[in-house]
Specification:
The structure holds 2 protein chains of 2 kinds. By secondary structure, chain A is an alpha/beta fold. Chain A has 2 domains: about 150 residues, 3-Layer(aba) Sandwich (Rossmann fold), CATH 3.40.50; about 80 residues, no CATH class. Chain A contains 10 helices and 5 strands, in the order E-H-H-E-E-H-E-H-H-E-H-H-H-H-H. The radius of gyration of chain A is 19 Å and the shape is globular. Chain B is of the alpha/beta class. Chain B is about 30% helix and about 20% strand. In chain B, the strands form 2 sheets. A 7-stranded mixed beta sheet of chain B has the order 1-9-8-7-6-2-3. Chain B has a 4-stranded antiparallel beta sheet with strand order 5-4-11-10, with no helix packed on it. In chain B, strand 10 and strand 11 form a beta hairpin. In chain B, helix 7 crosses helix 9. The longest helix of chain B has 17 residues. The mean pLDDT of chain B is about 95. Chains A and B meet through helix 2, helix 6, helix 7 and helix 9 of A and helix 7 and strand 10 of B.
Chain lengths: ~250, ~350
Amino acid sequence: MAKPRVGIFDFTGCEGCELNQLNFEDQLLDILGHVDIVEWREAMDGQVDELDIAFVEGSLSTPECITRIHEIRRKSKVLVALGACAVQGGVNAMKNTRPIEEVREEVYGDQKYLFPTLPALPLSAVVKVDFAVRGCPMTQIEFLKVFTSLVMGKAPIEPDSAVCVECKLKENECVVDKGMICLGPITRMGCGARCPTFGQYCNGCRGLVSAPNIEGMQEILVEKGLAMDEAWKRLQLYNANQLEGVQR
Amino acid sequence: MVQYLLEDSRVVDFVSHLQACKTVYAPHRKGTSSFAFAPVDDPTAVVLDYNRTLHSVKKYFLPPTETLLSFDLRTNEFTESEIVPCDAVFLGVHSYDLRAVHKLDHNFRQENPEKNYLRRREEAAFVGVSFEPDAFHFSGSVGIGSRDSSGFDVFLTRIAAGYILTAHTPVGQELVDGFVMPEYTGDLPVPPGFKQHIYVPQDKLSEVFEHSYRNDVWLETAEKCVGCGTCNLVCPTCYCFNVEDTVEITIDGGSRARTWDGCMLRSFTEVAGGEVFREESAARQRHRVYRKFKYISDRTGEPWCVGCGRCNQACTAGISIVSIVNRLVNDYDREVVETA
């Protein structure tokens, strides 16, 4: 059986998720043994016409991005969104909370007419996304799980419970009780509750669970004595697109 | 039964004495203001005056995650994990947590006996300690007093000078043998009262729950609940789990693990084909509370909640199972009893 042909692509983002794939020092040879990587701008030259799996990093933020993601979708059997920008818009989507012209002017000044821009969108806003590897940067253990499943021809299981679950499995003391703004209760698990385990709060980088009670979460943060503005900003950091239409 | 006085100054010696017999697990400080059971290394680190541990001792018999078997995809063979019994002393267990273990024993002996749990559980010895109820404990309302020694091998009751020690079983007597203590002949002071109460007994609760399926409290609670599942995961009588296979990156083998799960989690109610059979948070909350006071209780005659207060204390939204149940009782009295 021929090995699956894999392409790795990037849009608006820091390329940290891609870089993370090169950091699989212990597994990289296994990974390369199962697939042929045939297109990857960051690591090699050339383009191909057909792919079995496309791993795509970054959010869509220019008209050119829209054209290119359609091309990638057209030539790929399976498309996997890689990391917070691709999955939910990520930190880029913070700009969506301000008028687009204002943002454009602030960044490009009087050259702004040379740089058309769009609100930062997740891939799923434009094309069908089959699977996701979440996190900022993408969670490595999750990438390996998704990768292994796809190589075996199985649909990966995507976690859809809160980070709190993984904190509880580890018997961590709750950081909310220490006065932190932790978004763990509505953020999707899969990272092993890495930040709270090391005494940090969760800032929601893996996106929200599938039916989040955002109003309830705000109430909790305010009840814990935090300013609504501060709570809202924290929610916007990675999930600005998911907050649209939510009563503040 | 002989009562001994274990003076505060001798508690560390007593822990060392137990350690000489068996592995000892006991509460330790964890984080800034929490407690957790852990194997005793340094006897001076053991804390017997504590409100509650993050998890109950359930975690030793039904671990948060356990590998059930490993498989080889080349030969199509599997090997089940070897289960080692906890031949150990669990020191400093509160009455409600041991009662919870007894409830799990019941659940896991029904129908298909759960051999991993039962195997780990069978050799365990328990040394209990009384507790002073805080703002969250309500075990008194479900028939478990703060000094309830039933089921323990040895029990320690807190008094000003230390603990009154009593051995209740041959195993307990064996644990205490060789540790010299004076007999205690004084009085037993009145136990401190509970600060939270469910005001009716289980036989009435069963009737109340019969009429509470459509109560507004479920929807009202769902507005506050963020569905994080913490209440399930800290509960000493919750025992639901998920089973997942993981294949190694080498694609030649892997393992099957089971992990605690909970009925408050939306993904728990998702079945094959993607159907979610309890989509609404309100329905999940109702199911959780019914599992504690109705469904199992109708078959056993006992509440399946032990009143430890963990679900309330750990809930970031401050949802209280006591408030929910008392609300149901009040509504029942007003709507059903008065109109009858």
